[in-house]
Amino acid sequence: MHPSVSAARRIAVGAAAAAATMMVIAQCGGTRSAPTAPSGSTGPQAAPSITSVTIGRTQIEAGVIVDVETAVDYAGVPPDQLLYSWAVQPSGGTWIGDGPRVQWRAPTTDPVPATYTFTVTVARPWVPNSVPLVASSPALRVNDARREMIGNSESFLGDFSSSSASPDFCVRNFADSCSGKRTALDEITAHRATYSVVSVKYQLDSYLRSVGWANCTAPEGWARCALLVYDVEWVRTRRADGVEERVRGTESLRGIYEGDRWWLCEARFSPTTAPPSP
Fold it and tell me: Which residues pair with 220 in a beta bridge?
């Protein structure tokens, strides 16, 4: 065979082999192409959507941490490639972590009871002028059993000693479901008929929450009953003869969590010093 013909055949075979190799590389992904749009989308990539914003619990105590999480539907895009921004309304508390799963610690000094809502903003930083997605969580109720019960108890003691506070006003922080509300109302009415109270001094002696009492376990397992015991000194005047009495004792105030807040349920005074005989 003529050398020039042989060389031409070798060149043709080499070109064909090279073309075949390029075809295989293209079919196997050897070159990166632009991502294709998910099925049903109208652009290069379907727009994301927030499918949920969830919280680990619907009620917590002040200072407790709750899990907050969002789920985003965005075909083919890992969640960690999106940009998440969290906010809480009303503002307060402390955020822990970032991304689609975070935690929030409830404040310990803000007013209680309080209701908080979490909002997440999700953005695609690589898409110019894209509109961020925004969604909010269910409401989270934050309570502080000790603070709420102390507030209720000391308001009751102060109101009891004030002649300008009506008996109905004195028991405004008692739960309607507790028979102790009617008992307290009757005792205040009877006491006002016999005495005028000059002053009251009190000091908290003990505070206790327990699931050991009847109907005191919430569905989530936490204690929905509390007991406060105060050392109390009343100074009062008998209406019949104007004699002033000084009576010391303990005031036991039992409370219950009901309807998203703490209420008084019973008030019981046990004297340790007897008043003088009339």
Answer: none
